[in-house]
Every structure is written in C-alpha cells, then in structure tokens.
C-alpha cells in the first residue's frame, strides 16, 4: 500500500527522550541522582549546609539562604553549555602577583603566566570574591600530627625566657621538612599518596605550637651544660630532680644579675649620680686572613677577638682587637 493512500509506514518514530543516555544526561545536568555508564549510582547534589567557608575572602557575607538560591539557580539551568557560560562569566583572568620559585630563571619561562579569581554576583551587593572549599582531612590525622610533634624533645631558651617565656626550641639538626618526612615514615600505610600534605603539616606546626629551631650552640654556659648532662644521665629520679632544681636556681641567678645590671645602668644615667657602669664583652672569634680556599682551611691562621667596652652612662663603646 502506498503513502498516497494514507496508510502508515513500517518505519518507527525515534523518541530520544526515552533513551537511557538522554535520561542520564538530563539528571546529571540537573544535579539529580543517576546511574552512570559503569552501572554505578551517582548521588544527588545536596544543598549547602550551615557549615560556612573560612577562607581569606568575603565568603562570610553569603548567608545560607543566598547560597541555597545560588545552588538552585545553577542546577535549574539544566544545560551543560549554559552552566559553563554561567561559570565563565564569574571567572577573571589576572596577572600573578606572587610567583613561587621554579625550575626557571626568568618568570616568562614559566608555563603558567596567569592566575584565576572567582566571583559571585549577588543581588543588592557588588561582586564577592570567593574560593573553592578545601576538602576536610580526617580529624584523626590532625591528632596524630600533634602527638608526633609533642614527642620531639624541646627545651627552653637560656637567654630569651623573658621575651618569649612560652617558646621552646627543637634540636638544631631538625627542620619542618625533616619532621614531616619522619611522620610519613612512622605512619606509612603502603599507599603511594601521603596521608597528609606538607602544607597542612606545616600549618599545624605553626598554629598549634610555639616552637622554633635552636641555632648552633656556641659560647655556651658551662654550668648549664653540666646540669643538663646530669639530668640526662641521672640514675634515679631523686638525682634528676636535684639537678633540675640546681639548673632552675642558676637560671634565676642569671635573670637577677641581668636585672641588677639594667638597674645600675639606669642609675648611672641619672644626673649627679655616683654610679658608673662599665660592660666588657668578647665578641666572636675571627681568623686572619679571612680566606675560604682549601689551603687556608688546613693551615694555621691567626685568631683574634674583638674586645668591646661599653660605658653605660655615656652611651659610648670602645673596641680593641
């Protein structure tokens, strides 16, 4: 029978709206749950919660209702191309203000010459700069980092207790990088990806602790050194407590002596004062001639020190070599 007679043809009408591919694409663009091509279910996009962003930008001015409205406005577009245009209008291409060191001498050799800034346009407000939210690290790793750093022996400073009474010092040979590598070796789980990043480890080290690394020890106090050796090698707790009391008394004597010296210096500057304060100090030992090549390093050199005499009341310094 021909088509002129009004009979229906045997060719089927294609209805693409019922295809699994079309349904999957529609649900994905709307933020709904769907089953992907690997037969795995992808959960639905959830609304923003009370948890707010804590970045350095202006995300705090975005209320929960405003964030929910932005969420629904984006997913109600329902089209991938329109969503990409929406996001593109909120991204600004900018020059890099602060560049990290890389494997190049000239900044123009870097592969990345621009950076991106992200904004949101809110009704009744100007553009608000935002940032993506960092993924939360498991809280147990934070506790592990704190316990690991606390296990490193730390000491108080001998000279800066008044300026920074709560600061403690770690051994000279350590650094944050070495601490991080030691933490990874202790908590190695067999995977190639580290459980925590070095930036996060460094952030906890700086915010949770008042630690610093001691400079190389030179011109140390013999009383302090001998007391510390007694504490480390004490056979019993009684001997260790006595050595700690001795060291603490020595520290108090040093603080008292410095206070007396400062008071005498202030008295000497008063008019008609009969007090005169003179301070003596030997500076760091130096070698002559100052050369760094191998022959001079293994040769005998002339060593000398700079003797400084300071007249406190006159504020005058005299140096003798």
Q: What's the structural blueprint in terms of helices and strands?
A:
Elements: H1 20-30, E1 34-35, E2 41-42, H2 64-75, H3 80-88, E3 91-95, E4 114-121, E5 127-130, H4 139-150, E6 155-156, E7 168-170, H5 176-186, H6 198-208, E8 211-213, H7 222-232, H8 237-268, E9 278-282, E10 286-288, H9 294-297, E11 302-304, E12 307-311, E13 316-320
Parallel strand pairs: 7-8
Antiparallel strand pairs: 1-2, 3-4, 4-5, 6-7, 9-12, 10-11, 12-13
Protein name: (apollo) hypothetical protein
Organism: Parnassius apollo
Enumerate the strands of the largest sheet in spatial order, edge to edge or round the barrel: 3-4-5
Largest sheet: 3 strands, antiparallel
Cα shape: elongated
**What amount of the residues lies in strands?**
15-25%
Q: What is the helix tally?
A: 9
Radius of gyration: 35 Å
Poorly predicted runs of 5 or more residues: none
Structural class: alpha+beta
Compute the average pLDDT. Answer: 79
Would you count the extended β strands for me? 13
Q: Termini, distance in Å?
A: 123 Å
Binned, the helix content reads 25-40%
Topology as a string of helices (H) and strands (E) = HEEHHEEEHEEHHEHHEEHEEE
